[in-house]
Amino acid sequence: MELVQVSDKAIRYYRNKVKGNENVSKELIRKKLTRNLYLATFDKSTEDQYYKIYWYGQLKMTLVGDKIVKLQNCKGANPNWVKDEKEYKRLNKLLGIPDDHSIWYKFKKWLGKHISIKVNFKFT
């Protein structure tokens, strides 16, 4: 499955505004947004526009061509949207997205937030 292209602006937004994604890699963000795009609903009002809008719950994804150029969390938007859990899990497995609820994943995330290792080399 080909991963969606994502602008640097959208990557920064995802890290800063989407809960639990502060320290994730660009590659993992692309995987998660690819999954979200597959599960999203298309905003038909943008059908004839040069840009397209998709909704993944409250996350609004704006695409130009095949690239996500803007993300926006819109609190209260799309209240009737329901995530297809079975498809979500299938896509996670297919794309190699780690299970956020696994103990090992939580530990690695905690470790990255709490431990900083600095190495200084001196060549003599």
Record keyword descriptors for this entry:
single chain, 124 residues, alpha+beta, five-stranded mixed beta sheet, 4 helices, 5 strands, globular
Describe this structure in words.
The chain is α+β, with helices and mostly antiparallel strands and 124 residues long. The chain has one domain (5-98). The protein is 38% helix and 19% strand. The protein has 4 helices and 5 strands; from the N terminus they run βααββββαα. It has a 5-stranded mixed beta sheet with strand order 1-5-4-3-2. β4 and β5 (67-73) form a beta hairpin. The longest helix is centred in the N-terminal third of the chain and has 14 residues, at 26-39. It is globular, with a radius of gyration of 17 Å. It starts with a strand and ends in a 10-residue tail after the last helix. The mean pLDDT is 88.
Strand order of the largest sheet: 1-5-4-3-2
Given the C-alpha coordinates, what overall shape results? Answer: globular
Q: CA-to-CA gap between the ends?
A: 50 Å
**How many strand segments?**
5
Mean pLDDT: 88
- Which runs of at least 5 residues are low in confidence (pLDDT < 50)? none
In short:
The chain is α+β, with helices and mostly antiparallel strands. The protein has one domain.
Topology overview:
Elements: E1 5-6, H1 8-17, H2 26-39, E2 41-42, E3 51-56, E4 59-64, E5 67-73, H3 85-95, H4 103-114
Parallel strand pairs: 1-5
Antiparallel strand pairs: 2-3, 3-4, 4-5
